[in-house]
């Protein structure tokens, strides 16, 4: 049976943001809802209007999937733990007089840029309404934080003249976050695998 | 009942709708509507992300089938989902008894 244009348009709006298996499931539900109203005696167009109204705005459905995406979960956790890890590193770098270490200023600058970009991406993944943008921003933010943690864990013990207790604490925080990032990647890959089915 | 009021209870209601056996998304919504006497007032499209969340949490499991040429995802409770439903039911009974006692001035039911 040919579907009314309203239904195909609704599904197109969902397809622009959501993975194909998710849209296939929603399409099945929307067709069933349409059939339900047809059985109640509505003509096809009226039944399509009722079905679409019952489903809710596409943006609402997309925001629902964005809210449950592993990328947002990861971004939320990074946002919650970021200030603590950051505070440890700021204290460690200031008390260790990091500006006197044999490090090119460009390295500090690059690390700062990666940090700011990662924060922006994580905030966007936590607050953004679009599914695809949340997934991309969450993964990119997680990658940025992982790169920073890996850099700090490797570079600081090699560069710092001494490792204070606060530097040890900061290193432990970064190592813990690296392990979390590896686990997060597994969640995101599991979600990606679902979306390819 | 409005969506805001349902928040926090939706997961338990979805688990309860799957207690009788596997159901696809629309059938879950239909079962919820019937069990609530049509008072459930949520955009149908928002139920699907909630099912996805429960699946990610390991409380339900989904499998694909093809019906009338359309892909359909059927869900069923996992053992962890049954356990969670049982816990939510007990919590709800306690909570509703407490609120009823407070609102209606009736004494808190003593354990038998």
Structure in words:
The complex is a heterodimer of chains A (197) and B (112). Helix content of chain A is 83%, strand content 0%. Chain A is rod-shaped and about 80 Å long. The longest helix of chain A has 32 residues, at 165-196. Chain A has 8 helices and no strands. Chain A is mainly α. Chain B is elongated. Chain B has 112 residues and is an alpha+beta fold. The longest helix of chain B is centred in the last third of the chain and has 26 residues, at 79-104. In chain B, 53% of the residues lie in helices and 16% in strands. The mean pLDDT of chain B is 88. Chain B has a 3-stranded antiparallel β-sheet. In chain B, strand 2 and strand 3 (70-77) form a beta hairpin. Classes of the chains: A mainly alpha (197), B alpha+beta (112). The A-B interface holds A 21-22, 24-29, 31-33, 54-58, 60-61, 64-65, 67-68, 70, 191, 197 and B 24-26, 29, 43-46, 48-50, 52-53, 56, 64, 67, 70-73.
How would the blueprint of this fold be written?
The complex is a heterodimer of chains A (197) and B (112).
Chain A: H1 5-15, H2 20-39, H3 44-55, H4 58-68, H5 70-95, H6 105-127, H7 131-159, H8 165-196
Helix pairs in contact in A: 1-2, 1-4, 2-3, 4-7, 5-6, 5-7, 5-8, 6-7, 7-8
Chain B: H1 3-6, H2 10-17, E1 23-24, H3 25-35, H4 47-56, E2 60-67, E3 70-77, H5 79-104
Antiparallel strand pairs in B: 1-3, 2-3
Termini separation of chain B: 33 Å
Q: State the helicity of chain B in percent bands.
A: 40-55%
The tally of helices of chain B reads 5
Oligomer: heterodimer
**Principal-axes shape call of chain A:** rod-shaped
Largest sheet of chain A: none
Question: How is the largest sheet of chain B built, in terms of strand order?
Answer: 1-3-2
Low-confidence stretches of chain B: none
Q: Give me the count of strands of chain A.
A: 0
State the share of residues found in helices of chain A, binned by percent.
over 70%
